[in-house]
UniProtKB/TrEMBL annotation:
The keyword NADP is assigned to this record: yes
GO biological process annotation, one example: methionine biosynthetic process
Domain ACT, chain residue ranges per copy: 395-470
Name under which the protein is recorded: Bifunctional aspartokinase I/homoserine dehydrogenase I
Length: 810
C-alpha cells in the first residue's frame, strides 16, 4: 500500500486535477493506493474570509459563497461531464445556513469555524473521486471524519490514537484499489467536525500511512522536492535527492515550506520513507526522506532561513547566579503565547537573548517588562531591548558533527562579505548552526554560504563599473572575451552588474550582456554617482567589486564608504591613494576591518606588476632602500618621439589620441602624475609620506603651467616650441636620452627631467615603456627590475582585470 497526498496547488485547477489523474493511472494496479487531497488552492482562505465577514455582518459574504459554489460546480462539470451538481449544491445549502447563523448571531465559534473550513477538502475530494471514476479507475471516497477521531480542541485538534487506530483497522479490509480521503478534517468522539490545524492534510496522510502500514508516503506538491536553499533567493540552489528525517525536519523548521515537521511525525514514528514529488513534473527528479542517509561527501545538506525575526535582549549584572531567572523569562513568554525560535545566553550570565517572530515583538516586550518590573525599577537589570528587521539563516546537515571547521567556514564567509552576526546558536545534535543577521543581508548571506558550501569550486564576482572611456571599453571587452574560459577553467564567474558614465547607468542583477553594453547604457537611466552607489548598495550582492575608471575626485571620496560596506574597490584613479596620509591609512584600515580589498596596481605603471612586487617583497621581510623609476609611459612616448621635426604640441595630441595620456594631458606633463606614482610607491614601501615632501623640477615653461584650459595649453606649447627644441638639442649633443625620472633614496624624493647616458638602464626605454628599479636588502648590487609598457588602454585594462582576479582568488 502507498499513501499519496496532493496539496492545494496540485488540485487547484481543472488542469492540475487532470495531472493528478494521470499520476494515479500510472500508479494504479501496482499496489493499493490511499489518496489524501487538500482543498483547491485558495479555497480555505476564502472560507475563512467568508466566515469572518459573516461574523461582522458584512453581507458581501453571500456573493463570495455564490462565487465559491460556482467555482466548484464549474470544475465538477468540466472534470466529470456531468451537469448535475446536486451533491455540491447540497453542501453549499448547509454551508449557507451556518454562515447565515453566524451573521445573525455575530458570533464565530472555533467549532463553527472548523465546520466551515472543512468544506474545502470535502468538496475537492468529492470532485476528484468523481473525475477518477469517469477515467475508469476503481475509486471509493471515504469521509475522514469517520476515521480520524480527535479531542474537542477546535482549530487544531489532537488525534486520539487509540480510537483512530481502531476505526482505521476496521476500515482497512474495505479499502478500494484507490481510496480517496479529504485531508485536514476529522471529528470528535461526539461526531462534531474538527480540523487538524496547519499542515493538516500532511498529518492526515501520515496518520493513514502509519496505521494502515503503508510502504511509502508521497507528498505531491508544486516543486520537485527539498532544495539546498530557497530558489527564489538563491538561483543556484539545487534539488536534494536524499535526506534523513532529522535533516528534513531541521530544514522544514527553518523555512523550507515543503514539509511541516509536526504533520509528518506519524510517518517518522513508523520509519516510512517519504517522497516529495512535483505534480507538474511527475517524471522529474524528487527528494527521498528516510530514517538514515549516509552521505559523508557533504557536511551540510541545505541552508534555510526564517524572515521577519526580532531579537529580544535582556541584560544586567544582577542576572548572574539567579536560578529562577530563565524560568521567569520563558514562563512570561509562554503565558503571552509567544513562540521562541532561538535562544542564546552568555556564559557570564550577564545577558540572554531570544529570537522571536517580528509580529510577537511588542507583546514579548510588554510581557518581559511586566514580569521584571521590580528588577528594572531597582536597576538590577536593564530595560529589555527588541531589535527588529532581522532574519535567521541556518546550516543544516547530519554530518556536521563529524567534521571540524564548519562554523569557522560559515562565519568567515559571512564576515568576508560584511555580514554582521547578531546572535549564534547550535543544537546539541550538531545538525544545525544558526545565526541571526540583518534582514537586508539575507539574500547576500544565503548566496554567499551556498556558494561556499555547495559550489566550492566556483566563485561569483559582481562588478560595478564606473567610467567607460578608452580603458573602460578595453576592460569590458577583455572581460567579455574571458568570461567563458574563466568559468570553465578556473571556476570564476565574473558578472558585470552595472556600467555607468557621467550621465547614465544601466543595472542588471543577473549580469549585463557585454556584447551590447553600449546600447544598454545609451538607453539607461539618468544617474549620478550618489544614485549609482545607492542602487549598488541596495542590491547588496556578495563579492561586490566597485571599479572606478575615472579621474574623478568626487568618486574617489566614496571609496571609504564602500570599503566599510565590504565592497572591494579596484581603480587606476590615483587620487585616493595620494591624499593625506591619514586618509590613505584609513582606507587600508577599512580593508582589514571589513574584509574588503582596495587594489590600485594600475596607479603606477598600468598593467606592470609593480605594487604587487613591492608588497611581496615587503611581506616576505625584505626592505626597500631606494627606488629609481621612469613611471610615465606618456612622457616616455613624448621624448622618444620628439626630435624637433614636428611640434612638441603635436606629439602630445598624438599621445592623447592613442589613449596614452590622462583625460587632461596637463597632469602628465606637469609631472604631478609621476609625483603621485612615486608617492604611492613610497607609501607602499611602508613609509609615511606626503606629496609636499617630493621635490619637483618641471620641464615646462612657467607660462604653460598657468594655462586656464587645454586649448590655451596647446597654444602655449606652440609658442614655446623653441624651449622644447633647446632641451632636445642639448641632450642630443651629449648623446643622451631625455627621461622624466622619479627617485627615492636616503629620505629624499624627487621628480624631474634628466639626461641619461647609454650606460644607464633607462637609456634604451622604447615607446611608452616604464621601468622601476628596486634596491633592497636582498637586491643591493643588482636592483630588482620591473619593465614593460606603462601606458595604454589595453595594458591598463589588463592590470585592472588582474586586480579583479586577485580578489576572486582570495
Amino acid at each position: 500500500m502507498k499513501v499519496l497526498k496532493f496539496g492545494g496547488t496540485s488540485v487547484g485547477s481543472v488542469e492540475a486535477i487532470g495531472k493528478v489523474a494521470e499520476i494515479l493511472k500510472k500508479e494504479s494496479g501496482q499496489e493499493q493506493l490511499v489518496v489524501v487531497v487538500s482543498a483547491m488552492s485558495g479555497v480555505t482562505n476564502t472560507l475563512i474570509s467568508i466566515s469572518q465577514k459573516a461574523a461582522v455582518r458584512d453581507a458581501s459574504y453571500e456573493s463570495d459563497l455564490q462565487a465559491l459554489e460556482e467555482k466548484h460546480c464549474t470544475a465538477f462539470k468540466k472534470l466529470t461531464g456531468n451537469s448535475n451538481c446536486f451533491e455540491i449544491s447540497k453542501l453549499f445549502v448547509r454551508l449557507t445556513e451556518i454562515c447565515r447563523g453566524v451573521y445573525l448571531l455575530r458570533e464565530l465559534t472555533p467549532r463553527t469555524s472548523d465546520y466551515i473550513q472543512s468544506c474545502g477538502e470535502r468538496l475537492s475530494s468529492y470532485i476528484i473521486s468523481e473525475h477518477l471514476k469517469k477515467e475508469g479507475l476503481q475509486v471509493e471516497l471515504f469521509d475522514s471524519r469517520k476515521y480520524l477521531i480527535t479531542h474537542k480542541k477546535f482549530g487544531g485538534a489532537n488525534v486520539l490514537w487509540q480510537s483512530t487506530k481502531a476505526a482505521l483497522q476496521e476500515l482497512k479490509p474495505q479499502l478500494a484499489p484507490i481510496s480517496v480521503f479529504p485531508g485536514f478534517i476529522a471529528s470528535t468522539s461526539d461526531n462534531e467536525t474538527s480540523t487538524l490545524g496547519r499542515g493538516g492534510s500532511d498529518y492526515t496522510a501520515a496518520v493513514l500511512a502509519n496505521v494502515l502500514g503503508a510502504s511509502q508516503l508521497e507528498i505531491w506538491t508544486d516543486v520537485n522536492g527539498l532544495m539546498t536553499a530557497d530558489p527564489r533567493l538563491v538561483p543556484s540552489a539545487h534539488l536534494l535527492e536524499h535526506v534523513s528525517y532529522e535533516e528534513a525536519l531541521e530544514l522544514s523548521h527553518f523555512g523550507a515550506k515543503v514539509l511541516y515537521p509536526p504533520s509528518i511525525q506519524p510517518a517518522l514514528d513508523a520509519e516510512i520513507p517519504i517522497w516529495v514529488k512535483n505534480t507538474f513534473d511527475a517524471d522529474g527528479p524528487s527528494t527521498l526522506v528516510t530514517k538514515e542517509w549516509d552521505d559523508d561527501k557533504q557536511a551540510i545538506c541545505g541552508i534555510s532561513n526564517i524572515q521577519d525575526i526580532a531579537l529580544l535582549n535582556l541584560s544586567g549584572a544582577s542576572m548572574v547566579g539567579i536560578p529562577s531567572f530563565s524560568f521567569r523569562l520563558f514562563k512570561a513568554l509562554s503565558e503571552a503565547k509567544i513562540n521562541v525560535i532561538m535562544i542564546t545566553q552568555a556564559t557570564s550570565e550577564h545577558s540572554i537573548c531570544v529570537g522571536i517572530s517580528k509580529s510577537d515583538a511588542q507583546a514579548a516586550l510588554e510581557a518581559i517588562s511586566e514580569e521584571f518590573e521590580t528588577e528594572i525599577l531597582l536597576h538590577k537589570i536593564d530595560k529589555p531591548i527588541v531589535e527588529e528587521d532581522l532574519s535567521v539563516v541556518a546550516l543544516v546537515g547530519s554530518h556536521m558533527k563529524n567534521q571540524v571547521g564548519i562554523s569557522g567556514k560559515m562565519f568567515n564567509t559571512l564576515g568576508r562579505n560584511g555580514i554582521s552576526v547578531k546572535a549564534i546558536a547550535q543544537g546539541s545534535s550538531e545538525r544545525n548552526i544558526t545565526a541571526i543577521i540583518a534582514k537586508p543581508d539575507l539574500k547576500k548571506a544565503l548566496n554567499t554560504l551556498h556558494e561556499s558550501f555547495f559550489l566550492s569550486e566556483s566563485k561569483k564576482i559582481n562588478l560595478f563599473v564606473v567610467g567607460v572611456g578608452n580603458v573602460g571599453k578595453a576592460f569590458l571587452s577583455q572581460v567579455q572575451r574571458q568570461q567563458t574560459m574563466l568559468a570553465k577553467e578556473f571556476r570564476v564567474d565574473i558578472q558585470v552588474v552595472a556600467v555607468a558614465n557621467s550621465r547614465k547607468s544601466h543595472f542588471d542583477e543577473d549580469g549585463i550582456d557585454l556584447a551590447q553594453w553600449e546600447q544598454l547604457l545609451d538607453k539607461g537611466n539618468d544617474s549620478t554617482i550618489e544614485a549609482f552607489i545607492t542602487q549598488m548598495t541596495e542590491l547588496n550582492l556578495r563579492n561586490s567589486v566597485f571599479i572606478d575608471m575615472t579621474a574623478s575626485k568626487t568618486i574617489a571620496e566614496v571609496y571609504q564608504e564602500l570599503l566599510e560596506m565590504s565592497i572591494s574597490v579596484v581603480t587606476p584613479n590615483k587620487i585616493a591613494a595620494t591624499r593625506e596620509m591619514s586618509k590613505y591609512l584609513s582606507l587600508k584600515y577599512a580593508t582589514k576591518k571589513y574584509g574588503s580589498q582596495f587594489l590600485f596596481e594600475t596607479n603606477v605603471a598600468a598593467g606592470l606588476p609593480v605594487i604587487s612586487t613591492m608588497n611581496d617583497l615587503f611581506k616576505s621581510g625584505d626592505r626597500i632602500h631606494a627606488i629609481h623609476a621612469v613611471l610615465s609611459g606618456t612622457l616616455n612616448y613624448l621624448f622618444n618621439n620628439y626630435d624637433g621635426t614636428k611640434p612638441f604640441s603635436n606629439i602630445v595630441k598624438d599621445a592623447k589620441k592613442l589613449g596614452l595620456t590622462e583625460p587632461d594631458p596637463r597632469l602628465d606633463l606637469s609631472g604631478e602624475d609621476v609625483m603621485r606614482k612615486l608617492l604611492i610607491l613610497i607609501r607602499e614601501s611602508g613609509r609615511k609620506w606626503e606629496m609636499d615632501q617630493i621635490e619637483q623640477v618641471s620641464f615646462l615653461p612657467e607660462a604653460c603651467e598657468q594655462a586656464k584650459d587645454l586649448e590655451e595649453f596647446y597654444a602655449l606649447l606652440d609658442q614655446n616650441e623653441g624651449h622644447f627644441k633647446a632641451i632636445y638639442d642639448d641632450a642630443k649633443a651629449e648623446e643622451a636620452q631625455l627621461r622624466v625620472v622619479a627617485s627615492f633614496k636616503d629620505g629624499v624624493a624627487k621628480v624631474g627631467l634628466e639626461k641619461v647616458q647609454k650606460s644607464h638602464p633607462f637609456y634604451f626605454l622604447e615607446g611608452k615603456d616604464n621601468i622601476v628599479l628596486f634596491h633592497t636588502d636582498r637586491y643591493q648590487e643588482q636592483p630588482l627590475v620591473v619593465k614593460g609598457a606603462g601606458a595604454g588602454a589595453e595594458v591598463t585594462a589588463s592590470g585592472i582585470f588582474a586586480d579583479v582576479l586577485r580578489i576572486a582568488n582570495q
